[in-house]
Amino acid sequence: MDFNVTRDGLTLAGIYEPAPQPNGTIAILMHGFMSDRGYTDSALLVQLAQHLREIGVGTVRFDFNGLGHSDGDFANMTVLSEIADAQAVLTAVQDRLAPQQIDLLGHSQGGVVASMLAGYYPDLIHKLVLMAPAATLKDDAIAGRTRGLVYDPHHIPAQLPMDNGRTLGGFYLRTAQLLPIYETAQNYAGPVCLIHGDADHIVSYQASQRYDKVYQNSTFHLIPGASHLLNGAARETVLQLATTFIAD
Question: How high is the mean pLDDT of the chain?
Fold first, then answer.
């Protein structure tokens, strides 16, 4: 069913899918940079939601601002605005669904958002799954190289056109350079499952290794041959790892 959330005048397009036999846990799923909540059966978050519902976990997934069916302009998107989106969804889940426990699962940039949100709300989040978390986005912004864009990191333009026709806002890069990603994330002391592929050419698996070092209660799974999208032969492994972690 629709689970739309309003944040600062923007409507975020969400969907809530209850588990057939609910166990009291709701999982909030977060997608990556330029992606969406998943609208096909092959999408990672769609498949993950299906597996979670089979173990009694209801799921909420949504499009970040400027993506999918949500309001907003992608050129105005930043990691900070996505954290604000996620916080609004977290509050809505608490208020509307009143779950006994809330888990967060994020892929790529959604993993960074999930990790920081858990750091801000360590008392509310039960478990955390980070799949190819894109914490290297800060290093990329500092170096002046982001997703195929090359720019002067000390003189960032207001907008940068991308090859896919989208426009990345310069404020995204300026804020990315100063994000306290690991410093915020480590405030969460609950169980963390880290999943990354060793063939990820977009986000080095060293990002997950660093998360593993700062967390108090984490497990790191490096999947041989898996790409950033964690698709192909690796997909079933990812789904099983995440589902088993949430179920235990």
Answer: 97
